[in-house]
């Protein structure tokens, strides 16, 4: 039994475990001493079916809810009985020190599936001074008033993933609450993005309305690019870090001049259009992002076969063909990180091919500037 081990050893074991392992054992670990509980219960993932277990745990040991900082709760469509929603309200109100809250799941649920008392509880949680991240996942017909309230609540990081907003027949308000969020992640389907951008950035909003935003995570594939560019243009004077999901990279990016931007991250899938459009995009950076310090490129999907990779290795990106060229045009650039996202561990022949290929595309970068890696990534929602 873990609880029979010396406390010092238990704590070392817990520190070495990743978050997913800790979550998987959290609801059966109440017998451990407080220092261990503090580590284990810091991050909780509570599926809908486990709501009663979590309520029983918090009722039997109220101090445990005080350890919870990151909470993920799952909503299921039209299957949660009334008492289950009451349990969720109890869980949310018990965790007084939440810093990260994710509500939703892989299956689309309706906002109106939550009864009014539960909706009220969610509103109350937003007022917590400790809460710095809120993520809504897979929820349909979220009221526009709730989205507006979230943006002005002071929560630093907001993720809207796979949601859509309720159609509002009322006129837009003449007074707009100040947007206070610093990083907005908007990863929604093509039908849902325009209504949300219209809500976030109405035509009559005052200048500087989005000046608090420092980071944006946005889709930049062809049918979503226009809406994402509206947000980028509106934050052109304050944006420090855009994370852009380019999909198959069917067109090169056409960004406005971002003079204060320090870092940019691009994510895309291997495709026939990738290399020429990436070449054009990188060449434009000396004009549109002259002060960039960090460039992050993430490649998804299976690598092209070795023969096709070998054929392309003869052509480096012109901007990075020599050290003098990029230093003259991008004088602040200090780091280029290229990552191949794969569930496989990186020390494989495929990763060796990727590593060699990337270094051939950036021959002007020294090892202190260019970093190449492979594997998963830790921050999917905000990347």
State the main characteristics.
single chain; 383 residues; alpha/beta; 2 domains; twelve-stranded parallel sheet; 34% helix; F-box_dom; F-box-like_dom_sf
What's the short version?
This protein is of the alpha/beta class and 383 residues long. The protein has helices spanning 7-16, 19-26, 34-40, 51-60, 82-94, 116-126, 144-151, 190-200, 225-234, 274-288, 306-312, 323-329, 349-361, and strands at residues 43-46, 70-73, 100-110, 133-140, 157-161, 183-187, 215-219, 241-247, 263-269, 294-300, 335-341, 370-375. A twelve-stranded parallel beta sheet has the order 1-2-3-4-5-6-7-8-9-10-11-12.
What does this structure look like?
The structure is a single chain. This protein is α/β, with parallel strands linked by helices and 383 residues long. It folds into two domains: 1-140, no CATH class; 240-383, no CATH class. Helix content is 34%, strand content 20%. It has helices at 7-16, 19-26, 34-40, 51-60, 82-94, 116-126, 144-151, 190-200, 225-234, 274-288, 306-312, 323-329, 349-361; strands at 43-46, 70-73, 100-110, 133-140, 157-161, 183-187, 215-219, 241-247, 263-269, 294-300, 335-341, 370-375. Strands 1-2-3-4-5-6-7-8-9-10-11-12 form a twelve-stranded parallel sheet. Helix 1 (7-16) packs parallel to helix 3 (34-40), helix 4 crosses helix 5 (82-94) and helix 5 runs parallel beside helix 6. The longest helix has 15 residues, at 274-288. The protein is globular, with a radius of gyration of 23 Å. It comes from Mycena venus. This is F-box domain-containing protein.
């Amino acid at each position: 039994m873990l609880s029979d081990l010396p406390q010092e050893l238990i704590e070392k074991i817990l520190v070495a475990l990743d978050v997913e392992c800790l979550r998987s054992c959290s609801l059966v670990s109440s017998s451990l001493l407080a220092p261990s509980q503090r580590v284990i219960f810091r991050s909780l993932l509570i599926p809908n079916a486990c709501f009663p277990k979590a309520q029983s745990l918090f009722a039997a040991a109220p101090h445990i809810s005080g350890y919870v900082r990151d909470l993920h709760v799952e909503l299921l469509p039209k299957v949660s009985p009334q008492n289950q929603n009451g349990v969720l309200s109890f869980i949310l109100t018990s965790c007084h020190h939440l810093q990260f809250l994710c509500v939703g799941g892989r299956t689309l649920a309706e906002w109106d599936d939550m009864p009014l008392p539960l909706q009220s509880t969610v509103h109350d949680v937003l007022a917590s001074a400790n809460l710095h991240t809120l993520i809504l996942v897979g929820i349909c017909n979220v009221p526009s008033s709730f989205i507006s309230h979230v943006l002005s609540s002071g929560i630093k990081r907001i993720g809207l993933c796979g949601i859509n907003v309720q159609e509002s027949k009322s006129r837009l308000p003449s007074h707009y609450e100040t947007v206070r969020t610093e990083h907005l992640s908007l990863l929604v389907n093509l039908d849902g993005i325009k209504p949300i951008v219209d809500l976030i950035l109405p035509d009559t909003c005052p200048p500087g309305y989005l000046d608090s935003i420092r980071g944006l995570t946005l889709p930049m594939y062809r049918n979503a690019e226009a809406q994402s560019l509206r947000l980028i243009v509106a934050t052109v004077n304050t944006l420090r870090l855009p994370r852009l999901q380019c999909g198959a990279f069917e067109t090169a990016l056409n960004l406005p001049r971002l003079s204060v931007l320090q870092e940019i991250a691009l994510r895309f899938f291997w495709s026939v259009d990738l290399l020429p459009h990436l070449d054009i995009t990188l060449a434009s950076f000396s004009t549109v992002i002259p002060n960039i310090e960090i460039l992050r490129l993430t490649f998804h999907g299976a690598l092209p076969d070795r023969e096709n990779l070998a054929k392309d290795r003869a052509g480096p990106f012109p901007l990075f063909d020599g050290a003098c060229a990029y230093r003259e045009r991008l004088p602040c650039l200090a780091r280029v990180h290229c990552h191949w996202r794969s569930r496989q561990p990186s020390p494989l022949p495929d990763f060796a091919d990727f590593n060699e290929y990337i270094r051939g595309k950036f021959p002007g970068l020294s090892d202190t500037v260019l970093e190449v890696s492979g594997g998963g990534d830790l921050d999917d929602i905000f990347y």
